[in-house]
């Protein structure tokens, strides 16, 4: 008994390509048109790109607080096009300080606001971090340029700082927070800040310089003292 073996054909080899060409010709399909279609990139979806960068828990976040929606409209209104015919981009705008108890929905509203902003059709370069993670990223350590990282966070057009006041207070934390907030204050960059602290406690935590700038650059949004994670409406 003889065993016949065939050399494996590499996809895209001459034989395969010739057969594909004959099949396309028999169906009156232009091979060049098929090749152009295959090379065409996937349509870019700003919302899809946004959702891919969001934590799964907040990908469906919807902003419905009146003051948050007002912020979205104002930031979108101030967006400008870098050149004629180009898409408008967020460059400057107001900021929000969202205060309330743990679980009141502040983080949900912050992510929902950025999502809503993208849905208005403007370009948004954004970044989100908790205050604790921010300080960890900015803390000086070997092999890391913390000054470069601070500069990158400072100039990001839209920034979410979640849980301000949750990290342990120190002179270093106060100084880094001041440098970050002061740069965003000077350049009028939209910033969404959430905190569980009352203003008096925030002042004691961050000092007068930071809280003074926050008072000038943000609209304070008070959330109801209800932990929505525990008190979900009945289905």
Automatic annotation (TrEMBL):
The record's listing under Pfam families reads: IstB_IS21
Specify whether Amino-acid biosynthesis is a keyword of the entry. no
| Ranges where the IstB-like ATP-binding domain occurs | 95-210
Q: What keywords is this UniProt entry annotated with?
A: ATP-binding, Nucleotide-binding
Molecular function (GO) terms listed?
ATP binding
Which InterPro entries does the annotation name?
IstB_ATP-bd, P-loop_NTPase
Q: Which PANTHER family match?
A: ATP-BINDING PROTEIN RV3427C IN INSERTION SEQUENCE-RELATED, CHROMOSOMAL REPLICATION INITIATOR PROTEIN DNAA
Query: This protein is called what?
Result: ATP-binding protein
